[in-house]
Design a protein that fits this description.
Blueprint lengths: L17 H11 L17 E3 L2 E9 L2 H10 L3 E2 L5 H13 L8 H4 E7 L8 E2 L22 E7 L4 E6 L4 E7 L1
Parallel strand pairs: 4-8
Antiparallel strand pairs: 1-2, 2-8, 3-8, 4-5, 4-6, 6-7
């Protein structure tokens, strides 16, 4: 005996294309809390290019930085353009937390790693990093343990860093 609702059944008079099926599934996906980003997702977030960003106090590891962003509905920041990289450098430098030449307060975790394959950088959303803004001599995988992506606010460039060092955190909401 049928106990569902009429919305549980869809009948079509033709085969649907893969794109049409995907579109139907996408309509059924639950909306995330950050779908409407007209207001800041957290107090003090700054809007740039339809995304929100915030610099948070240092976390002692990449994993704890990642978790900190996820707890507020965001993720560690991804950098896809030179303009976005420049914006994030300014965000670090303008932060009340910024202290030049103090690693925990002048460098921030970004959302990429090469932990699975050395030299192959991937954002936490599994997309490959396609633009790089490395500082001189970077990435160098010093000591064979540098698998996280850092943005150095003093140099205005990227560095590969260890997983268990205190650094600022840049969260992004999109």
């Amino acid at each position: 005996r049928f106990q569902g609702f009429i919305d549980d059944v869809r009948i079509y008079n033709r085969a649907l294309s893969a794109g049409e099926v995907k579109a139907l599934y996408d309509l059924e996906k639950p909306k995330t809390e950050t779908t409407d980003l007209s207001d800041p997702p957290v107090s003090g977030a700054v809007k740039w290019n339809d995304h929100w960003y915030k610099v948070l106090p240092p976390e002692n590891s990449f994993e704890s930085a990642k978790t900190k962003c996820q707890q507020s509905g965001g993720h560690l920041a991804y950098v896809e353009t030179e303009a976005e990289n420049t914006f994030l450098i300014g965000l670090i430098r303008d932060s009340k937390l910024y202290t030049a030449n103090t690693p925990a307060y002048d460098t921030a975790y970004l959302g990429a790693t090469d932990k699975n394959r050395e030299g192959t950088w991937v954002w936490l959303n599994s997309k490959p990093v396609t633009r790089f803004f490395w500082g001189p001599g970077e990435p160098n995988n010093e000591g064979g343990v540098e698998d996280t992506l850092l943005l150095n606010g003093v140099l205005g460039a990227w560095n590969d860093g260890g997983d268990h060092n205190a650094h600022l955190v840049i969260c992004e909401w999109e």
